[in-house]
Amino acid sequence: FLPTIFVITPTYARLVQKAELTRLMQTFLHVPQLHWIVVEDSPRKTALVTDLLKKSGLVYTHLHFLTAKDRKLQEGDPSWLKPRGVEQRNEGLRWLREDRRAPPGEDGQQGVVYFADDDNTYSVQLFTEMRNTQRVSVWPVGLVGGMKYERPVVEGGKVVRFHTGWRPSRPFPMDMAGFAVSLRLVLTNPEACFDGEAPMGFLESSFLKGLVTMDELEPKADDCTKVLVWHTRTEKPKMKREDALQAQGLGSDPAVEV
Ligand code: UDP
Ligand code: MN
């Protein structure tokens, strides 16, 4: 018997979306007992994501939640200005609390909740590590925060501080990809969510601070010495020649899904 891992992924339409989701989907196909919760940042579910999920062979839930315009990063804004994927992750949490609510008097389903952005790179081993999360488990994240890696520092089996390049005094100076939470904790703390108004770098803390203390964190990946997830970012493809051809009426066929 394996606890289910619920993976919440915010995603939004752009040229690389299908490539990102294909890569993610094919990683998740190697993971048993995984339930993918995909939350589109869009006014409605798109055909691209609907078809991809249908054909994936994964157990999934498809949701959407449009980020309000004033909360969204505008073209040209520096990427640190506003947090991304906040309302989508909260929508995933809302669905879990409604759909996986334990019947009165019962403990409910055993499970784990993980927030997986669509552009990161995930080792299959990471899911083995998080499978038995009791409250909140943690591990290193590679290529993040202007560092080779960030990680919790473990002494005597406990997290005692964090290796990070920036504001280690934050309650939980960890990237979104660096922790998982038990489903039970999510269900028994119905108010815990991500605060989109939290100051830069405090989004993860806004969710975790009501759920767990540093002392209770469960270090995984060999006492946080192995990097099993990377905060990779995908380059925006250049469309210089596409635009030039389009101007002559010779652009790529819009009927071909990319
Ligand atoms: N995202 C979104 N809407 C947006 C921008 C991003 O739903 O307007 C999603 C994106 O697909 C990803 C997550 O939010 O899963 C984090 O975004 P991104 O990877 O751009 O953030 P960064 O890596 O720069 O922190
Ligand atoms: Mn990213």
UniProtKB/TrEMBL annotation:
Enzyme superclass (EC): transferase
Cofactor(s) named in the record: Mn(2+)
Binding site for Mn(2+): 119
Pathway: Protein modification; protein glycosylation
Single GO BP term: chondroitin sulfate proteoglycan biosynthetic process
Cellular localisation: Endomembrane system; Golgi apparatus membrane
Chain sites annotated for binding UDP-alpha-D-glucuronate: 10-12, 41, 84, 89, 117-119, 231-233
Region named Disordered: 238-258
Domain of life (superkingdom): Eukaryota
Enzyme Commission (EC) number: 2.4.1.135
Site location (Interaction with galactose moiety of substrate glycoprotein): 150
Active site: 204 (proton donor/acceptor)
Catalytic activity: 3-O-(beta-D-galactosyl-(1->3)-beta-D-galactosyl-(1->4)-beta-D-xylosyl)-L-seryl-[protein] + UDP-alpha-D-glucuronate = 3-O-(beta-D-GlcA-(1->3)-beta-D-Gal-(1->3)-beta-D-Gal-(1->4)-beta-D-Xyl)-L-seryl-[protein] + UDP + H(+)
Keyword entries, A-Z: Disulfide bond, Glycoprotein, Golgi apparatus, Manganese, Membrane, Metal-binding, Signal-anchor, Transferase, Transmembrane, Transmembrane helix
GO cellular component: Golgi membrane
One of the record's GO molecular function terms: galactosylgalactosylxylosylprotein 3-beta-glucuronosyltransferase activity
Membrane association type: Single-pass type II membrane protein
Family: Belongs to the glycosyltransferase 43 family.
Protein name: Galactosylgalactosylxylosylprotein 3-beta-glucuronosyltransferase
Species of provenance: Gouania willdenowi (Blunt-snouted clingfish)
Entire protein: shown range: 79 to 336 of 336
